[in-house]
């Protein structure tokens, strides 16, 4: 029950981020790309091979993270 409530809160909080552009630090290698972190430490997965500070547009929402693309 608690997991369902947490998932609902995450979804509600992050749906408004889809389409938004954020200044991020791309630093953690993940499957097929990297995890980028916003200034509020939200995770956005991006398909890139370069680390550093980048502008990232959020394109989709997954259960526990956001998907994005480098702008």
List keywords for this structure.
71 residues, alpha+beta, five-stranded mixed β-barrel, 1 helix
Structure explained in plain terms:
- The protein is α+β, with helices and mostly antiparallel strands.
- Helices cover 18% and strands 48% of the residues.
- The protein is built from 1 helix and 5 strands, in the order αβββββ.
- The protein has one helix at 2-14; strands spanning 21-30, 33-37, 43-46, 52-61, 66-70.
- The chain has a 5-stranded mixed β-barrel with strand order 1-2-3-5-4.
- The model has no long low-confidence stretch (mean pLDDT 92).
Which descriptor suits the 3D outline?
Answer: globular
Biggest β-sheet: strands ordered side by side in the sheet: 1-2-3-5-4
State the helicity in percent bands: 10-25%
How many helical stretches?
1
Strands, total number: 5
Poorly predicted parts = none
Portion in beta strands: over 45%
The span between the termini is: 38 Å
User: Strand-and-helix sequence, N→C?
Assistant: HEEEEE
**The biggest beta sheet, please?**
5 strands, mixed, barrel
Question: What is the mean predicted local confidence, pLDDT?
Answer: 92
Please state the CA-atom Rg, rounded to the nearest Å.
12 Å
Could you say which structural class the secondary elements and strand pairing correspond to? Answer: alpha+beta
Can you lay out the helices and strands and say which pair or pack?
Elements: H1 2-14, E1 21-30, E2 33-37, E3 43-46, E4 52-61, E5 66-70
Parallel strand pairs: 3-5
Antiparallel strand pairs: 1-2, 1-4, 2-3, 4-5
